[in-house]
Write a structure and sequence with these properties.
311 residues; alpha+beta; 3 domains; two-stranded antiparallel sheet; rod-shaped; membrane; transmembrane; transmembrane helix
Length: 311
Amino acid sequence: MADSAAVAGSAEVKLNDLMLAMDVVDTLRHQEAFVARELDEEGREQELTARLRKIYRDQGIEVSDAVIAEGVKALKDSRFVYTPPRPGLGVTLARLWVRRGRVGAFAAGLLGLFGLAWIGYYILAERPAQQRQIELSTNLPKALEAAYADASAEAKAPAARDRAAELLADGRRAAQNADPAAAKSALDGLKTLSADLRQSYQIRVVASPGEKSGVFRIPDRNTNARNYYLIVEAVGADGQPIALPIKSEEDGTTKMTTKWGLRVDKQTYDRVGADKADDGIIQNRTLGEKRRGFLDVDYSVPASGAAITQW
């Protein structure tokens, strides 16, 4: 037991001496000018030792000459000076491991930015491109076929069926050429064709009190001629007027209207005028009929369908 206590005491003394020697080195480092002068001159170590002893004595610390000598020697040998390792793969990996927290956060940040960039690219570019491809290869062709089948089922005249086939061919070609706008235009044309084929109405001369039933025009190019028009309207099976797209032969514009001037020959114009002048009532107001399944109006009077929208 006594031997163990002696060994422990000896170890504690050696540790204290080592700590003091390290403190001496640290003190010498903080007085670089003084140390450089004393250590560069031979035979001055005794004076350096005396000065160090005084520094510690002033602090109330007793340091032996052996400890001071050990500290001075350690400073000369750079024993307690940290020397960085030479650069290399091992050093680099060790530093990465030490900084793994910051490196991991940085890598996570990069992955996050990459993920956001990919999401943005997918939403703004990839997904629209996929949807466009599906639209051109699947949705539009199906819609075109369905609209064509609908129009064909309604058509009762060769001209209507030919028009439906022409629109279908235009739509297919546009889809194959990756032109969705043209394909949709053909699709809209088929839908409009079907709607037109479903319509049925009569063309009648208007006869409301105080309303004109006819007008004539003197053409600018031939002032000796006259163009005669009866003011008409399209009346459905329910007796209500129907708005139709009417193109004016005077200025070439098309207007949706329920009333327009239908160009007729002078004989028809005069007959209707005389009928109205007789008792204020036009006995036979119907000039033509548009039947379901047909595109054109079947006129009962000489008429080409030429019209005006203002009078």
